[in-house]
Input
Amino acid sequence: MAIVTKKEKMALKLELDAGIVDGKQKTASKSFNNVKLDALDDNLHQTATKLAGLQNKSLLNVKRVEETTLTEE
Output
């Protein structure tokens, strides 16, 4: 049987610099839900960069968070 994937939800997650504690990088994160399922990586990164400019902390990483359903066909 074939497995079919269906994207259900997508979010954009910004990981921000929260400083160094005990020699380890700490991060803070901000998530933005209800992202269009067909959003392109370039557009997500560009949006994340602009949103990071509104934050007090520096941007470390941009992540796409997807929820996908797997079903048998």
